UniProtKB/TrEMBL annotation:
Compositionally biased spans, kind Basic and acidic residues: 316-331
Region (Disordered): 305-331
Lineage: superkingdom: Bacteria
Source species: Ruegeria marina
Protein name: Uncharacterized protein
Length: 331
């Protein structure tokens, strides 16, 4: 059964079968899925979790040099191979964590998947996820045992991403740009398939935002199978500004083009919203049907969904299982 009802115990660990001393759990987010809230929760509870054998690497560590060189990019000509140095740096830190008594290491970094900027430029969900995660998998020397991925209804995910971009100077999207997003066939199924291809043998846990948003302790317990502290679990961070705040941020000529009201900014037309919700319904149906054996969908039957609930998928429908859509990094 691939739909796991939290808080039921998870299946026997692959790591235990391999005899590995430390589980390595990559928390990939995604962006705009309460990832910053999860990272804040983990950092605030780091000492308490460490006593239970759970270690944590978050952006305060991954973005201060630990991952520098894993992905290709500009570098200072020193005659040294930056990727080789990055791999050595990651593996050294893994060894130190294991020797310190860490039994499970949670590495939370949504930029491993890609960036919001890239998604907005390409009008696609994480088009380079496969290539990027293959490089991270090599850096972790095959020690990754689990991946935790949060997904969200595409109409709300893209609205949040566009709001993020708007607050950072991206400007208002045109109708053509919005239609390009709404009609792009790439969905969460493709992202999950890319992750599975890039990290073969790794167990992928998919936690819907509509169920687990703002509940970092539930996410942690679901993937580790351990009790999680509730302290700092309701401190929500990095929400996209609502319409009144956006009007304060934007230049007057752009602010005047925003709709009236005090709620969240919803840039899509009704037909575009319908297309995005249909895509999410297809993704959920694929996950509930087994995800081709690639992933586990985690649900909490005692928790009502939050926010707008996507329409119930018609279980007689589904996307065609195109072979080329299963390739890592497919866009």
């Amino acid at each position: 059964m691939t739909v796991i009802a939290f808080p039921n115990p998870r299946p026997a660990r692959v790591a235990g079968q391999k005899g590995e001393a430390m589980d390595v759990i990559l928390h990939l987010g995604a962006h705009r899925c309460a990832t910053t809230t999860f990272q804040h929760y983990m950092r605030q509870n780091a000492e308490r979790l460490a006593r239970d054998g759970t270690g944590f690497w978050g952006p305060h560590r991954t973005r201060t040099g630990l991952f520098r060189g894993i992905l290709p990019g500009p570098s200072i000509a020193t005659g040294r191979d930056p990727r080789r140095r990055a791999v050595g740096r990651v593996r050294l830190n893994l060894t130190r964590s294991a020797l310190s008594g860490t039994r499970r290491l949670v590495v939370s970094e949504e930029n491993m998947l890609g960036s919001t900027r890239e998604n907005l430029r390409q009008a696609a969900l994480y088009p380079s996820a496969g290539e990027r995660l293959a490089r991270y998998g090599q850096a972790f020397d095959g020690q990754v045992t689990d991946v935790l991925l949060n997904i969200r209804s595409q109409d709300l995910w893209w609205a949040s991403a566009l709001g993020y971009g708007l607050a950072r100077g991206f400007g208002l999207p045109s109708r053509v740009a919005l239609d390009r997003i709404a009609r792009n066939p790439r969905g969460w199924r493709d992202v999950i398939t890319d992750v599975a291809c890039a990290l073969p043998g790794v167990r992928i846990w998919v936690l819907p935002f509509e169920i687990f948003a703002g509940r970092p302790e539930a996410q942690l317990a679901a993937v580790t199978g351990r009790p999680a502290p509730r302290e700092h679990s309701r401190e929500h961070l990095n929400a996209v500004p609502r319409l009144p705040a956006l009007r304060q941020i934007l230049p007057p000529q752009l602010a005047a083009r925003l709709p009236e009201g005090d709620g969240r900014w919803t840039p899509f037309a009704p037909d575009q919203v319908a297309a995005l919700r249909e895509a999410y319904a297809d993704d959920l149906m694929w996950l509930a049907a087994g995800a081709d054996g690639l992933a586990w969908l985690v649900e909490d039957l005692n928790k009502k969904s939050v926010g707008k609930t996507p329409p119930t998928p018609d279980l007689t429908r589904g996307r065609r299982n195109d072979q080329d859509r299963r390739m890592a990094g497919a866009g």
